[in-house]
Amino acid sequence: MDILDKILNVGDFKVKVANQVYVAFTGTRVHPENGTKDFIPASLRASGSPGTVTENDVAIIQINKKTDIPENAYIFPIAEKDPIDDNIPDDYEVTVLGYNAGFYMQDMNLQEAIKPQAQHGKITNTSQEYRIGYDVPTFGGSSGSPVLNKQHQVVAVNNSSFSLEQGFNYGVRLKYLIELINKIQKTKN
Known about the structure:
It is built from three helices and nine strands. β7 and β8 form a beta hairpin. It is globular. The two termini are 31 Å apart.
């Protein structure tokens, strides 16, 4: 974006980056030709540091109208403390509950609607303060998915992979997410 911004700003115009956030819940049938009609509008509340696979690229969004949340929607509770903050054993098992390939799976008639797939593995890298690596296979569409431990607690948010090899992925640890939530609560309006 920085290079593109420099190229485009040679003339008498300025590029403004804007985005709109929408969500779809499990069981929703999404039709790409409908644009955003099949999705629920949401707003960005806080974000980490977007960038490469080494960044804390995660965001907290809020659905604009509470009445848009389906009654049967499951919202994962966020612990006050990171369950793996002090001790991550070498054989720590995790599951990414994600949407591999996003709505493309339903378009290939492999699913009637958007449904999560559970992929299992183990934590393989704990060398960074806010990120963990794991050998769980994920594909595009799983970004933002919860990474769960055996007790079904959220320990991270899936955010990136090493694209040359499937099964080498990263998640932003829960302790970073807790910091973002605290930031929102301090500036709540």
